[in-house]
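Q: I have 65 residues here and want to know how they pack in 3D. Can you give me a structure?
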Amino acid sequence: MIDELCMPLSVGILNWIYLVVWYLGTSASFSRLFSVLECNIYLFCYWSYYFLFDITRLMFQAFHQ
């Protein structure tokens, strides 16, 4: 149970590491800004979906034990 609760946190940390790598990987400042914004929106959508799915799954497991 503890591992399942820690997993979303580790995924979030990996997402931010990916964001930093993406930010450092782009060259021009103008395109860098757009890359970071695009990456932020993508990660926010992905993270929200993953978090909602995981919370729903944990609640479902708790009620059916």
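Q: Anything worth noting?
A: Residues 2-63 form one domain. The two ends are 12 Å apart (CA to CA).
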